[in-house]
């Protein structure tokens, strides 16, 4: 922000920002911080109402834009309500289910008997055109319940209860009855969800589930908020 023409400031100096400018700068910093860990498409408390405003179903607050909502998620009220919700779910849930980090994730029947974790293989991949880095997950479900297709969900570091939250990481959860849900710790980079970049496929014959995750390039992440600067076309 340009402060050099404000009252009481010298030419070329920083100047004194007004209260409204300070609040706007704070909200922008909180929005950028939240974008590092929150995917609005997967946020269960994010809701767009019929008048175009955004609501937080957890705190029952209304916000004029997504930036205001993201800033709200980093505030004390939202974080306190998240902790209360997690404590209540842990108290009401089954302590023997082994789902410490899945309280906000996939719903599991309490009377389901788990038969262990599926076998898996992780391979590093790289798109030959865009040079995007990513991971390919292969999981084996030989005893999967007929008619069940594994489900995938991304979880922020602040939702899990296994370790101390670290904004530099996120989690990929894959669930399928009657197996235990698998959680993979990934970098907190934005996932490219365009066609052909992020995909899942379940082979009914071999009972094998495939998930490919490609991260956006540093340039796309840097200029994602600037229209016209982030090119979606692959480099030649």
TrEMBL record:
Primary subcellular site in the record, as a coarse category: nucleus
Gene Ontology CC annotations of this record: catalytic step 2 spliceosome; U2 snRNP; U2-type prespliceosome
The keyword Oxidoreductase is assigned to this record: no
Annotated localization: Nucleus
Keyword terms, alphabetized: Metal-binding, mRNA processing, mRNA splicing, Nucleus, Spliceosome, Zinc, Zinc-finger
UniProt KW tRNA processing keyword: no
Family of this protein: Belongs to the SF3A2 family.
Name of the protein in question: Splicing factor 3a subunit 2
């Amino acid at each position: 922000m340009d402060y050099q023409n404000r009252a009481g400031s010298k030419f070329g100096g920083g100047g004194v920002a007004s209260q409204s400018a300070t609040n706007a700068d704070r909200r922008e910093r909180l929005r950028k911080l939240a974008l590092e860990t929150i995917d609005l498409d997967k946020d269960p408390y994010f809701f767009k109402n019929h008048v175009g405003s955004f609501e937080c179903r957890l705190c029952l607050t209304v916000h004029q834009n997504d930036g205001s909502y993201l800033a709200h998620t980093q505030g004390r009220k939202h974080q306190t309500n998240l902790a209360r919700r997690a404590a209540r779910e842990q108290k009401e849930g089954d302590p023997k289910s082994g789902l410490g980090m899945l309280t906000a994730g996939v719903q599991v029947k309490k009377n389901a008997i788990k038969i262990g974790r599926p076998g898996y293989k992780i391979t590093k991949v790289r798109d030959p055109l865009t040079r995007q880095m990513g991971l390919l997950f292969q999981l084996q479900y030989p005893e999967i319940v007929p008619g069940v297709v594994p489900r995938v969900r991304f979880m922020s570091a602040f939702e899990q209860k296994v370790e101390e939250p670290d904004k530099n990481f996120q989690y990929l959860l894959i669930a399928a009855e009657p197996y235990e849900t698998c959680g993979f710790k990934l970098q907190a980079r934005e996932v490219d969800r365009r066609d052909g970049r992020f995909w899942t496929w379940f082979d009914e014959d071999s009972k094998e589930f495939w998930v490919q995750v490609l991260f956006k390039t540093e340039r796309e992440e840097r200029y994602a908020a600037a229209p016209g600067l982030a090119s979606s076309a692959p480099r030649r």
